[in-house]
Each structure stands twice: as C-alpha cells, then as structure tokens.
Specification:
Blueprint: E1 2-7, E2 10-12, E3 18-26, E4 31-39, E5 46-52, E6 59-60, E7 68-73, E8 78-83, E9 92-100, E10 113-114, E11 118-122
Length: 124
C-alpha cells in the first residue's frame, strides 16, 4: 500500500502561481509513476500531469502545457506541480496519484492510489 499526502493548495488571483507537493509513504519502492489529476465542479476528473517516479517521461495535458511543470524528488518520495499563469479554469480539487510497476495513470479508473485532494481556487 502507498499513502499520498498533498499540500500547497489555496486561493490565488488570475495570473498567479502555486506549487503543489505530494509526499508518498509506504511501499514506495515499487512505484513506477506519480502525477496529478484534478476535478472541477460539475466536470469529470481529468489527468493533468504525470512523471516516472525515478524521473523522466513527463506528460502534461494540453490545457496546462507551458504553464504547469511536474517534477519529482525520489530521495524525498515527493512529486511537485508548479502552476504558473493560473486562470479561473484551473479551479479544481487537485489529487496526487501513484501507480506501481505494471499499472498506469492514463485515466481515473486506472489509478490505484489517490491522495485526499487539495483545493485550488483562482479568482479575482
């Protein structure tokens, strides 16, 4: 089992920045990939960004490409999401996710491990 704890959410004005962090604990030796999903009010949960647990092969959904950057520090079992140039459309609950070897993070039904979520609100 793997436990995920997010931090760093909050409220920010349009154009602002936030950095989300997620610390993994438990059976982290077997992790292959970590990332972030989000769910806005009235919308389906969507994949935002994912990365190999030991670095590399980063993915960012088109709507955040160029504004968000995912990174990982394996020595700290922590994945980050740097979010710049935030817009109201980025308002959502952001969930940290993780998958062990043999599993993936393509869609919500694929994800084996979820964090509790952290709220990001972008509003003037």
């Amino acid at each position: 089992q793997v436990q995920l704890v997010e931090s760093g959410g909050g409220s920010v004005q349009p154009g602002g920045s936030l950095r989300l962090s997620c610390v993994a604990s438990g059976d982290t030796y077997n992790l292959s990939r970590m990332g972030w999903f989000r769910q806005a009010p009235g919308k389906e949960r969507e994949r935002v960004a994912t990365i190999n647990y030991r670095g590399g092969n980063a993915f960012h959904v088109a709507s955040v490409r160029g504004r968000f950057t995912i990174s990982v520090d394996t020595s700290k079992s922590t994945v980050y999401l740097q979010m710049n140039s935030l817009t109201p459309d980025d308002t959502a609950v952001y969930y940290c996710v993780a998958a062990p070897d043999g599993e993936n993070l393509y869609g919500p039904t694929d994800v084996p491990y979820w964090g509790q979520g952290t709220q990001v609100t972008v509003s003037s």
